[in-house]
Amino acid sequence: MAVCIAVIAKQNYPLYIRSVPTQNELKFHYTVHTSLDVVEEKISAVGKSLGDQRELYLGLLYPTEDYKVYGYVTNSKVKFVIVVDSSNTSLRDNEIRSMFRKLHNSFTDVMCNPFHNPGDPIQSKTFDGIVSGMMVQTG
Amino acid sequence: MESLTLSDVEQKYYSELFIYCDTDNTKKVASNGRVLDLFRAAQLPSEVVLQITELCGATRLGYFGRSQFYIALKLIAIAQSGLPLRVESLNSVKDLPLPRFAVGKNEAEVRHTALYQDTDSQGMYPASGTAVIPRPPGRGYQNKKGPPSSTSLPVHEVVQPLAPTIESQPEPTSPVVSPHQSPPTSPHPWRKHKRQHSGGNADRQQVVAATGAVWTQFREPQTGPVSGDGMWSSHSPPLPSQESWVSFTADTPPSITLPAAHPSSVQESTTIRTVASAATTNEIQRQSSGYDDPWKITDEQRQYYINQFKTIQPDLTGFIPGSAAKEFFTKSKLPILELSHIWELSDFDKDGALTLDEFCAAFHLVVARKNGYDLPEKLPESLMPKLIDLDDSAEVPEPTADVGYSGSPVEVTPNKSPSMPSLNQAWPEMNQSNEDTAIVHPVAIRMTPSKIHMQEMELKRTSSDHNPTSPLLAKPPELSEEAKLPASMKFVAANTVGDGYSSSDSFTSDQEPITRQRSQSGTSPEALKVVAPPPPPPRPHPSHSRSSSLDMNRTFTAASATGQPQPSTTAYPPAVPPRPLPTQTSASHTGHRVEAEAVPGSVAVLTTTSPQQIPQQPNFADFSQFQAFAASEQPSSLPEVDKHCEAGQVDKTSEGAGPLRTVKSDGQADERPSTTVNSAKGSSGPLAPPPKPVRRRLKSEDELRPEDEQHGPQKSNVIAAVLATQPSIPRSLGKDKKAIQASIRRNKETNTVLARLNSELQQQLKDLLEERISLEVQLEQLRPFSHL
Questions:
Q1: How far apart are CA B271 and CA B212, in angstroms?
Q2: Domain boundary among B333, B352, B371
Q3: Which one of B96, B223, B559, B566 is most buried, by most CB atoms within 10 A?
Q4: Is the CB of B352 inside 8 Å of chain A's CB atoms?
Q5: Which of A68, A115, A126 sits opposite B409 (nearest CB)?
Q6: Which residues are in coiled coils (chain B) (predicted)?
């Protein structure tokens, strides 16, 4: 259901960005970039326990014109950002959470791959498949 | 040290020649007559031949091993091209024509020459893997500039033509897919005969040679004479699959960049390696070239892999940690990206470590990749870890549990060796019988006990472009059929998760019809609680796509429930729609719900009315609202509508809404039956005045908006459920195209209405969300204060 899915490293550079090939992908890149500020803000705000799944999920970061941005941060400060088209079905919070969970799982799988160096762009076909699955659902 | 780079064609050619010369079948052409004849047929001056034998090291060895033979052949080609004979020229000369041998006793060669020269022009150079370098141990000799030309070439010693031994090749002829095998031009019967065999054997041999080359590459540092001797002496095929690879691991690290030989560790292993590797790769090739199971690991290979595993991890039931595996496979000098992909494929449980089975699979994939075979998108069944191993290894988690685990390419891990053969067999069946694109088909045949896996498998399968069982030969039918599946599969998976699971439970290795039946039975009972047990649903037509099959079944079961003979009902609905429906549908769409229900309802209604009269205006008028989705076989509409429904729906107070409401309250399972019943009831007053439905529709539209949020989730569920079971009236598409088109029109109209509604609902939703966000922001702002 997502229009754009991005994985941002701890140092705030993108490990993986993928958007439904619509008109301007750059717009999504920009959106993701700006959403990082919100993510940082939320991270710093939540000062207490950081291991909670609930707090890994940041929820709706901010809505804009016709899309909404959701954030999720892992314990290693790797951030997932999902941009969802608002004109699309309004995805329930649980659905977004499940999407993030799937992302997190496949991200973990990628990290488990000994041939993948953390910090490298993600080039896993499995990961691509999962992301495509989440994006293709938009139809 | 240079090495010999052979093109695909060359390898095949040389291999075939080698087989031809290998009369004793000892893998070393001990200067028998054939070799001599061959060389003589090359029509080169004898001193050239002598030089060639020197260069290739045969004089040193006393016979022609495979490597020497190949080098000799290449040198012959070089010589025939008029180039100076030099070791360096072996690889530097590109596009070297194949060595030509004069017509004579060696008809085989001639034929092959003709053949391969034909194919040579087609010049298929393998994809990356084959361009590797066989470094026969003999090369070592060449560096030393070999032994003094010991007088008479060993070649000349034996000149007894022997019957071609190709036919007696031990290896079974496998249906090798050889792009190079063009029909020979020569009409000679013997040639043809030989060709048949060579078609099988030679290719394998050729490829074997190539693959042998692959492995010898790892031993670059080969040198010692010991290696050469040892190699040839220990050439028994089964033998050293292990040793061949052993060398790979042992010396590759030190030797990768060093052309110079590393005598010590390399020697023994290298020797064995060449031959063994040839044999092993031959095995691999043989297996790989099999249509039915290209990825099967032979026992020799497996044994070799196990030995390799032991070198890293003595405990066979233990794991190889990722780092160790990384080092090990990095030695294969494959690109990291490919190794990463191989890892993804082979690490089933995603634990960052390799069990024995995983390791074997990974190794096998590496070998295949080195030989030029593309990596599959998904792990082939034959490489999946056996259930036995899975059972033994406690940590192998059933990826079943986690739906999000779709990362594992092997959802069928739970499948076990016993089921594997059937899987393999069932696989082609499934593909061929897939025309129906009923979602259940692939799942059923997969026989995956895990529902989740089946679902994921379906999704993955539909999304994957490769057929795992035949990575080399993508079967178009499978692909096309699989391509047909995606939309329906996703839709069904999304909407009928429960159904899918329940139906998948009952899956066996039955054929498609049965599986379809099961799935349908899974859904139909739920749908038709009120109605009598439906007869086996008719098989959906191939023209039907996707979820329409389920819908059709449901439709018919509903129809049958209402008392119509199921097969006959099919005839009715198609006949009915055309005239009245278009008029009726125009006004439609109060709601998705209406339509959703309309589908089952319309069918039921139709069936009820059909006996009376087929096209009865009032009947149609009555359920015009229902027929909105009648015959909505377009799955695309369904997901759209589904989305619309999810956007937030309203309970209708109208009659049309009534059933929906009841449906909603009952929940998904009950929706369909109640819907059907209600709609049936609604249709029971078949002659209800047409305006009523229209009014209802309008009303429900109005009602929809205000009641958005309240019934959002319910409605979505309802809609989803109902949509999932959209009956498509024109079951017999072949018979009633008009009906289909009419239904398509109706659906389109419905879609537009729904889209409108949806946008309105979205707008409301947006407003609410904005409010919510503002509230959240305020909350966030207030939060810091709470901490102060």
A1: 12
A2: B371
A3: B559
A4: yes
A5: A126
A6: 747-778
